[in-house]
Amino acid sequence: MLDLFAATPIPVVPTPTTPPPGEGFDLFSTLMWPFKWLVELILVFWHWLFTAAGMPAAAGATWVLSIIGLVIVVRSALIPLFVRQIKSQRKMMEIAPELRKVQEKYRGKKDQLSREAMSRETMALYKKHGTTPVSSCLPLLVQMPILLGMFYTLSDVKKHAEWGVGGVGLLNTELTKQFYDAQLFDVAPLHTNMIDAINQGQTATVIILVILVVLMIASQFITQLQIISKNLSPEAKTGQAYQMQKIMLYVLPLAFIFSGVFFPLGVVMYWFTSNLWTMAQQFVVIRNLPTPGSDAAKQREERLARKGKALDSKGRVIPMEKYQEEQRRLAEEAERARAAAPKRQQPIGKQRAKKKQPPKAAPGNAAKSGGTGKSGATDSPSGKDTGGSGDTRPGTTPPPAPPKKS
What is the end-to-end Cα distance of the chain in Å, rounded? Predict the structure, then answer.
């Protein structure tokens, strides 16, 4: 069962088209061993379940349903990681405006001190909101070994069957041979790819593979299209990342042409089923956990409003009465915070500040009046003006200024 360290097996077919398994040390196969073992366990379990229900062990439908069951189990187990990835991405979107402010603050500054300060402020934002760019990619990295384990387990069936060996786990020699002999609709072998089908004149297999490739491209296109058209905020539609997503919308599905040409039919079935799962999963996410500010988020709010419900500040669905009460409370708190905050002083320019300064009294007038007023006038004990240099009452003349000393 463990073909990594076994001796070179003897082929069971006259002219095997694949190299012997386990020839030399393969580091990648060694690292993938536990994931392939887990995938074989799930695949064999579904095969046992369908055969116990009366389906033929070597029938193509039995193994195709087992592949579909494998995809369902593995992708279901990855749902928590997928949800965590979405939450991490949302947090990154929430702090995107603050990150842009930090970047604008240090734009054009390439000295070491500025770079370190920018890095410190950026990390402080990540710590404050409890996220990092790596946290949104980590779930995807965890998924990759499992998905690769699924891919290589199905791809190795032809090689193992031709050399009379089993897989690394419960997929023994007999089950491997049954998988190898299985045919979809009793005409298309699951181990055959499009090139082999064309060379061997298997027209039905070619037609089935072409249909599956077209369906894979369509499902991938629909999945990307619903993300771009419904689940992006207006801010996200203005950057270069959005332009790249529009390009990938048309380029990425074309990669499935390569998989349809070179991958066996069993692997193409797995890939198509996985695409359908992704499309359905994305539909559920966009409907129930849309990106804030996106068209999907507005549509969800409208659906909730028709049901008399709304989203609170934490994103939970609550009755409309509680939502209105929460909005009033938040408004009152914001008003109190504004009232308690210190008022900002309006900055005054130099020219405006000079205009606001009181005029200075003339030196002569100030000396005569004793420096008690701006115009030199003093008040009498009765409270009336006694007539200084600033007296401008009719019929009075100001006293002459003293002569200047030479």
Answer: 123
Q: What is the mean pLDDT of each run of 10 residues along the chain (406 residues)?
A: 55 76 71 90 95 93 94 88 77 77 86 87 84 70 79 86 88 92 91 90 93 90 84 72 78 77 88 90 87 84 88 81 87 84 64 61 50 44 44 52 53
Residue found by looking up tokens 């028709």 in the block: 306
Rounding to the nearest 10 degrees, give the CA dihedral for residues 7, 11, 15, 17.
-60
- Measured in residues, the chain has a length of 406
C-alpha to C-alpha distance for 16 and 159, rounded to whole angstroms: 8
- Write out 95-107 in H/E/C secondary structure: CHHHHHHHHHHCC
Provide the 3-class DSSP secondary structure of residue 310: strand
pTM: 0.71
Structure tokens at 326: 């929460």
DSSP result, 127-182 = HHHT--HHHHHHHHHHHHHHHHHHHHHHHTHHHHHHTT---SSS--HHHHHHHHH-
- Whether the CB-CB separation of 319 and 309 falls below 8 Å is answered with yes
